[in-house]
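dumping the sequnces here before i forget
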Amino acid sequence: MATTHRPPTLEDVALAAGVSRATASRVLAGTGYASPAARERVNVAADRLGYAPNPAARALVQGTGFRLVVAVTGTAATVLDDPYVHRVLGACARVCAPHGLGVALHWLPTRSPGEVRRLAADRSVGGVVLINTTEGVLDAIPARLRGRVASIGIGSALVPAFDVDNGGGTEAVVRHLYATGRRRIAMVTGPRWLSCAGRSVGAYRRIVRDAALPERLVPGDFSADRGRAAAREVLERWPDTDAIVGSSDATALGVIDLLRGDGVQVPGDVAVTGFDDIPLAAMTTPALTTATHPVTQIATAAATAVLDRRPVPPATMFPSRLVRRVSG
Amino acid sequence: MATTHRPPTLEDVALAAGVSRATASRVLAGTGYASPAARERVNVAADRLGYAPNPAARALVQGTGFRLVVAVTGTAATVLDDPYVHRVLGACARVCAPHGLGVALHWLPTRSPGEVRRLAADRSVGGVVLINTTEGVLDAIPARLRGRVASIGIGSALVPAFDVDNGGGTEAVVRHLYATGRRRIAMVTGPRWLSCAGRSVGAYRRIVRDAALPERLVPGDFSADRGRAAAREVLERWPDTDAIVGSSDATALGVIDLLRGDGVQVPGDVAVTGFDDIPLAAMTTPALTTATHPVTQIATAAATAVLDRRPVPPATMFPSRLVRRVSG
DNA sequence: TTGTACGCGTTATCAA
DNA sequence: TTGATAACGCGTACAA
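..and the predicted 3d for all of it:
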């Protein structure tokens, strides 16, 4: 009873089942031949002993890795401080837990897409989940990683995509503004290099064009500070604007802050919408009208695809759903 | 050039340095004897080859683990969805990265403190960072984990604590309210089982007693919903209250929401303060007066203590600093 | 269908 | 001070 409780090894299981380690391994890994009888005995023994394979040993022999790396593309390492990234990391961690794997966080500089090769060369890396990735990064991914990479955002022939229907979401938001009487709708865009942001801009342009509304675009970068600056720019260039579409909730909050500071009523004078539905979008005053995205679900799906190594469709789209609150 | 780029192993380094694997290991691990000459040659070779030890192999032979587990105590697994937890996870991940380790997320049920033993038994666990831990959990930690556990919150003889000076922070907040003329100050507490919340309550009681103010305590649980309910309770029991101290920012936002819904001016009629300074506390209207905490720094310190295995003081306190904004 | 034997990269033990 | 060598737990050719 006082003996140190060494976790059961494959050897223990094999011994208890009366077979060789090799047979036990084949049964548990589900690969190779094994008689039904042996199969049964091994499974029972493993269950009884509470056997769990040692990921370190497995990683060592297979060179398969024991870490799932969440790799974030961005211009600076500060992208790793983003709450959204942390949320994805958390979801991945929960998927990894039952496999005995850990997760890691890695910055992929926008300017040197080849950096991803270093990840691929690291034998301790079991898989990679890409965030905010670019085509440059996707192109640099070596074939060796095939089946062990997934992207939250755009994908490629090698990399399955798990993405939000940004275009659809933006469309829903803009249509909603139109439906509630707004006719001079401006948009604060996301960073130019991010293609998912491009889809939002595309949707916006399409709708205003079809409805013969003026196109009013101001560059942004998802930050609240830039939102403030953008709002000022909008006010100066087009004083009659009656709605501003933010490309992120932080952007929208920055916009609202500046507007109210200038005595502009929200949503009375100008409606403002966000994008993403961060936890506090519901708590602000006025509560933010925005589009909500199943971030945890998406991250879970991406991580699962990487860990299961089963064939997945090249692109899985997740809905972006309008959340009507007060601001717009 | 087309050869697959196998990462350098210890063997490669030893070969390049003209010594045996054993010597190279001793030099690189910093343990055991080695002549200055050999030391030099090995280090140079390792640098040139860009050698990094394979954590899987190391974990296998030492049984030391390749994952840092962030273990969160709470009544339900949903505590793992908390943005604060994710932030700690992110900080730990950044500390782990250079060591080639991954991080994992684990729920420790409040009701069964012994659960932590399962973590200790898992050989793949290199270390544990505790969040919101209880004395029950601390007591259940086996000695085997000594030096590989750190706690963000309370500690024990075995477990060094990395904590925010909650008492000091709450004191600063309440004193600030007093200094700005508030005399009937209520407090919405945190969950009872969390001892760090207890320190805040203690600080509050001490101050109101010393200043001969009425003590007005309402139980909370850090959530915005509970904040709303608590605010209603305060309004009913003590209608002349002129300040409400929230034990978290979410609580404060819930309080503000209900107050404004009832036509109570914030901070005109009632001042409201939060605690933690979450990213959006600065963006709400009115912007939240709160206490800010270096969460990332704290998590980094805790993770570093676990990974470095160097002796650390039993308790390291981090300051809680008042942030004066608009709400109080 | 099963078992033997080797290798994965590292650390630890021991003899030289 | 150094270098063989034996583990660590697992997967897998290869032989039986």
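Chain A touches chain B through 51 residues (CB under 8 Å).
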